[in-house]
Amino acid sequence: MSKVHNIVIAGLGGQGVLKVTDILAEALFKAGFDVKKSEVHGMSQRGGSVSSEVRYGEEVASPMVPAGEADVLAVLDATQLEVARGVLKAGGAAIVPEDLPLDKLQNPKALNTMMLGAVSNYIDLPVESFIEALKANLPEKLHEMNIEMFYLGRNSR
Amino acid sequence: MSERMLVNGNEAVALAALDCHVDLGCGYPGTPSSEILDEFARLGGSAEWAPNEKCAMEVAIGTALANGRSLVTMKHVGLNVAADPFFTIAYSGTPGGLVVISADDPGMASSQNEQDNRRYAVSAGVPMFEPSDSQECYDFLIEAFKLADQFRSPVLFRMTTRVCHSKCILNRTGAGLPARKAEFIRDPRSNVMVPAFAKIAHRRLRSDLKTMAELSEKSSWHKVINKSSDLGIITSGISYQHVREAAPEASILKLGFTWPLPEKTIREFAGSVKRCIVIDEGDNFLADNINAMGISVEGKDQEFRFGELNVTRVRKLLAGDNTPETPGAPGKPPQLCVGCPHRKTFEALRDLDCIVSGDIGCYTLGVMPPFNAIHSCVCMGASITVGLGMRKMLPESEARKVVSVIGDSTFLHTGINGIVEMVYNRPETGHVVVILDNSITAMTGLQENPATGRKLDHTPAPAVSLEKIVEGIGVDNVDIIDTTVEHERFKTLLQERLSSNDTSVIIARRPCILGAVKAKSYEVKK
Question: What is the pTM assigned to this prediction?
Answer without folding.
Answer: 0.96
